[in-house]
Amino acid sequence: MAHWQAAFSQEHLSIAELRYGVETGGFTKVGGFENLVYQFEKDSTKRILRVSHSSHRSEEQFRAELDWLTYLADRGVSVSRPLPSAEGRMVEIIDSEDGRFILTA
Length: 105
What we know:
By secondary structure, this protein is α+β, with helices and mostly antiparallel strands. It is built from 3 helices and 5 strands. It has helices at 3-7, 10-20, 59-74, and strands at 28-31, 36-42, 45-53, 92-96, 99-104. The chain has a 5-stranded antiparallel sheet, with helices on one face. A hairpin with a 4-residue loop joins strand 1 (28-31) and strand 2.
């Protein structure tokens, strides 16, 4: 496990729950290698939260990836469409003393 992954604490996960409108304890870790991957349910649909670190890629790179996925989905390609947070943001940032955690769903 990478240092940044060990630094992603229960406190950070609680912040993510608030940001995505998920009830307490609503995230279930399902794996990860370069990212932490959690499953959650919203509107009776299973969804995925990806937690990455700014040491891996920049926020701009994540936004570009989400733009690309949206472009493909809008043209009928079978891809997972990015989902906004409760505040309508496609990328959520949680700052910590170990850097920035970048969240996408």
